[in-house]
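Task 17 of the worksheet. Students: predict the tertiary structure of the chain below and write it out as structure tokens. Keep your answer in the requested format; marks are given for formatting as well as content.
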Amino acid sequence: MYKASRFSPLVSVVRHTVITLPTPINISTWWNFGSLLGVCLVIQIFSGLILSLHFTAHTDLSFYVVIQSFGDVYYNWWFRAFHANGASFFFIGLYLHIARGLYYGSYVFKEVWSVGVVILLVVMASAFLGYVLPWGQMSFWGATVITSLFSALPVIGSDVVIWLWGGFSVDNATLTRFFGLHFVLPFMVAGLAGLHLFFLHDQGSSNPLGVSSDYNKVVFHHYYVLKDLVGVCFFLGPLLGLVYFNPWLLGDPENFIEGNPLVTPHHIQPEWYFLFAYAILRAVPNKLGGVVALAAAVLVLFYMPFSPKTSIKGLSFYPGGKSLFFSMIGVFFLLTWAGSKPVEEPYVVISQVLSFLYFAYFILIGPVTRIQDKLL
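Model answer:
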């Protein structure tokens, strides 16, 4: 191995990345989600490539091609269910990964954190584009509603919407370009993930105590390789259970009806992993204000590396900060619930209150921990 790594730059990079990488000895299971997200990305790319071989991006054919492939193509149902549910598990891993970063102060590594937020944005875009492709009722109307939001942009809004649609409504041109973008974006995510790892290995991993671990590290292999493999097994178990026993549990029944521009679903809503942002969008009566709030719900993460610094990295030793954090987690779940409800009272008022509390966390967490620093 030494000779191979000495004469082969590629082998040397792999060796220093996954074998001899110095890693803090006290990182917990919460650090497993980085590797799990890598596994998710590989699963999504591979299953997506298989599905693309039997897909036709045309408004008259897409829905029927998807349905026909279930019975006519060997294991197409399995790849479809694995791809759809894999997206849900991907977002579960992403949200837990971000929550761990917020709790343990990983955002102090500005480059690592910023690239991670960009990955989140690209994954969200890819997931939305993929949701449109089956051309069911919720796919069609979801695409119509979300793309129409760009019309709120001053001056250029209408032109942007027409450019996105490729015409004056969501139609064949829209579906074709959405399919092309959905195919390309995962490879962009893979490239950004490589950049994310580069900055991570350059700056080092954080740890639960929030203190320097330069003098207390072990090599990545085999300690954390085995730990990550156990995490992958625990991850694949529920995913396979969902695929085999209830593959459409997380889907919308409306999407088993072909998209019809003349029939509007009673309640239009995105997939569950976008519901928190959808609730924030609906909480603002003004269209432009809602779009700004929707974007801010994710872009606010870019602010965290510039929030007030604390004496100890993370919230482990800050009772006030921990209370705020777990309150924000509760608010996130409640926003997801509110986003699944119709646009009527009392859900509108509830969404407005929860949206205020969501943004309040990012404003208050810095000052609250700084006050605790001064008191201690």
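Marker's comment: The chain is about 65% helix and 0% strand. The chain has a mean pLDDT of 90.
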